[in-house]
Structures are given as structure tokens and as C-alpha cells.
Amino acid sequence: KNQVEQSPQSLIILEGKNCTLQCNYTVSPFSNLRWYKQDTGRGPVSLTIMTFSENTKSNGRYTATLDADTKQSSLHITASQLSDSASYICVVSNSNSGYALNFGKGTSLLVTP
Amino acid sequence: DAGVTQSPTHLIKTRGQHVTLRCSPISGHKSVSWYQQVLGQGPQFIFQYYEKEERGRGNFPDRFSARQFPNYSSELNVNALLLGDSALYLCASNPGGIYNEQFFGPGTRLTVL
């Protein structure tokens, strides 16, 4: 069964601090992995996308890593800002059925002053 | 350029009623996908349409149906609404083919009373 597990479920950090979110998956055969940011009540917005051959990808203060051997990914946020408060969702696609994305439940991040 | 648009933004229905949600993809995108996101969960895949043909269907009952029009806009229909259908319904578009980068709309919040 294709599954995507994220941890922690929720996280509270102080503004300016760094944090790392985790994603483990069992999706096979693997096509790509992406991280989305979703503000409350809004649609997800893509942050990074990585294929099998990529092990790190950055987008500003967001850096994603991928270990395809252990089927793990992380999203590191540096120098957090209040606007980073959102849900971060890990999404893995199966190369056999590219239309069916497998979503994690997300990590809810709250950045406090 | 306009992103994916959805209407209505919010909707309140009662059990047993029918609802139609609408989505307009990014200009030039030929594929539209629908997702259901229950509060606190990641999105669940419902349908994908490409060039007006259904390309994929998730594990949802027959009460859920969709179609895509010649201008690539799409409708999601849900009959005999249940309380459990209350959710954020997301539409995503992509250029089509095997390329599956999804661009999400803001969603329609459906509440069933």
C-alpha cells in the first residue's frame, strides 16, 4: 500500500529559529516527492519537487532532502518567520499512476513571536 | 496570469441534497484533478480528467461524479450528501500528459448540516 507518514504532527517554534520536518514513504515505484505549504483554508502551494536522482533542493529558506534508499525526506526551514505558520504536506507520486498523488497528513507549524 | 479558480468559495447544504462545484484551470492546462480534504487530513484523490476523458478515479462512492468541458473547465457533482462529505474540495490543474506537477486552486469549503 502506498503510504506517506509525516512527523511531527504539529510543531511550535519561536520566530527566527530553524526547524526540520520529516516524511517517510512506502510509495513504489517512486516517481517524485514534493513538499507543499498550505495556509489554513487555502489550496497547497508547491515548495520543492525532487526526483529519484536528486538528494537536495532549495527554495529560499526552505531546503528539502531526499534519501531514496531509506525512503525518507526532510524539509528544513531556516530563520523562521511568522508567515511560515502553515501546514506542510509531503506528497509522493507513483510512476505507474502519475495522476494519483499520495499525500501525507501534514505537519502543522506555528511560529510565535 | 490567473491561477486555478474555484467556485463557490463556501457552500452550506443539508443532508440528501446535491451539490455542484466548479473549477477553471490555468490557461493552457488540459488536465484537472479533484481532491477532498477533511479537516486535519491530507487531500484524498477523487478524479482526474484529461482532454475531457476520465483518466483516474480514487476510492469514492458513485455519488461523486465529474466531467470536463471543451474549454477544460470542470465540475464535481456530489449527490445524496452525507455529513461526512463536509470538507475542503480542491481542484488542481496541470499541462497534461505524464507531467504531473499540480497547481492547486483555493478550494471550496462545503459544509453539510
Can you walk me through this structure?
The complex is a heterodimer of chains A (113) and B (113). By secondary structure, chain A is mainly beta. In chain A, 0% of the residues lie in helices and 58% in strands. Chain A contains no helices and eleven strands. The model of chain A has no long low-confidence stretch (mean pLDDT 92). Chain B is mainly β and 113 residues long. In chain B, the strands form two sheets. In chain B, strands 2, 4, 5, 6, 9, 10 and 11 form a seven-stranded mixed sheet that branches. In chain B, strands 1-3-8-7 form a four-stranded antiparallel sheet, with no helix packed on it. Classes of the chains: A mainly beta (113), B mainly beta (113). At the A-B interface, β4, β5 and β9 of A face β5, β9 and β10 of B.
Q: Main sheet of chain A, how many strands, which sense, barrel?
A: 6 strands, mixed
| Binned strand content of chain A | over 45%
| Uncertain stretches of chain A | none
- Topology of chain A as a string of helices (H) and strands (E): EEEEEEEEEEE
Ends distance of chain A: 41 Å
Q: Which pair of chains has the greatest number of interface residues, and how are they split between the two chains?
A: A-B, 23 and 26 residues
Q: What does the oligomeric state look like here?
A: heterodimer
* Total DSSP helices of chain B: 0
Bin the helical content of chain B: under 10%
Instruction: Calculate the mean pLDDT score of chain B and round it.
Output: 92
Rg for CA atoms of chain A: 13 Å
Shape of chain B: globular
DSSP summary: helix tally of chain A: 0
Secondary-structure element order of chain B, N to C: EEEEEEEEEEE
Which parts of chain B are unreliable, with pLDDT below 50 for 5 consecutive residues or more?
Answer: none
Overall average residue pLDDT of chain A: 92
